[in-house]
Amino acid sequence: MNANAFVPTASPVFRPGCFKKRYQFKVRHLFPPVIVNLREDANPVLDSNARDHLRPEEIRYFKENGNNAVIFIHGFNVEYGQYSHHVELSQWGFDTIRNRPMEPKIIYSSRPANTYRDLGVLKNQYAHWQVENPNLFNDIAMADLNGTGAHAWYLHMEDNLNRATGQFDRTNYQKYSRMIHLSWSGDVFALDYMAAETTANKAGFGLVHLVDQLVSEGISVNIIAHSLGNRVLLVAMNILGQMPGRHESIAHAFMWQPAVPDTALSNDPEKDTSVLRNWNFVHAHRAAKKIVVLYSSQDNILGPYKDKDSRREDWEAGQHGEARSGQIGGIYRIATSAGVPGTQLFYAPWSVSALYARNLLKDNLPKIEQALYEEIAKDTNGLFNESHIPIWPPKVLPALGALIYLFHMSREMADDAMKTFRALAKADYEVKQPRPAMGYGGPEMDSDLFIQRLVREEKILPVDQSLWLFDHSGMKIPSDLLFEKVYKEEIVERMKRSTGFGSF
After folding, report:
1. How far apart, in whole angstroms, are the C-alpha atoms of residue 341 and residue 345?
2. Do you find a cis peptide bond into 393, omega within 30 degrees of 0?
3. pTM for this predicted structure
């Protein structure tokens, strides 16, 4: 029986002229958090979130909640972590046995806290208790109040986006939208930055399955990726861009401080100058209707300091890691220049030289070939004249033949060897350095006509946040200005216009 069918009275149990034995009440519960765990160490037996798709009840939730979903992908060096627990007042009251008041304490409850908790609100809630008991919060790790690792990112990002809609103020959760949080194995050894590229590739395949499921259900998809999480996004977009029926399947791809080369969105494979040549995502642009690149030259994890004042400000603000990184030109630039994980650099330093030598030969082979042809054209004998080539081995280079055969070489053979040396010396070599980070200066537009066209068509939307974002992870706990300029204006407003996110 529906309680709303009766005329309300002062009592929910007694009504005029009758006594009801049974009433039906509707209680609203916030939908559980949605996590897709694509980590390599994920155990499906122990973790129900170890999957690459959503459950039917989750699909139903996103359909009924505006028929859209926002996926968030964290960045490098973020462990899986966990949620914290709610806190409650314990041991308060009067101890009748000892005839004295109990000393109250704040302890963790058994219930995990899967929404953001405001530290100031919590302290105000128990302010009158703390006046008499300064040690009230001693058993609570206040820094971990909102979880650890990836779970902390989830709570902060979900809270920030919901507040940016203007519909939610941390008091009434009826107008609160859950996001889909994707976890991947980005927490390799801190010096093994490049090793995380491999784990990002694997997570990218899982993201393809997730997006494909959502789109098949008719749900609009927005994706926000931070730092190296943008490689996960690019891998998925590159695959989706080649799948029939999945072009522009992503409404908005927000690349926030992307720790990827500034040429990663180009359709020209020759633009990839990374040491491993593994940043070719020539089909990625097809997968999204809009690609919003949020970058900042104040991000000194990705690039060098523009001035000394910025370094001093970072140091005084306690951002010591960022300060040291910016001073040496940015950890991203150091890692991409090495091109291999830090541990490999330590145990096998020759591997870096081998990679650079391979790239030098590969990049300059046409120029070397042209120089050789020019030397051959200077005389009538040409190069590799059969009468001058030793019988064994028949394909030895003239340059090596001079060392192997010594006195058995003819004068003509030695001349041919010198032609090779002269050609190698005169070739106009080009040494290609890894490109700077897209999250530092935006997508490369100076010489890439394709990117220029996509920017003119507003397919790619570069957003310079240098006046609002001052450190690599500054969006996690944003300033008021960053919250207004980026969360509200550049992200939520775009999603509201295209997919209805935050509209109830």
Report:
1. 6
2. yes
3. 0.82
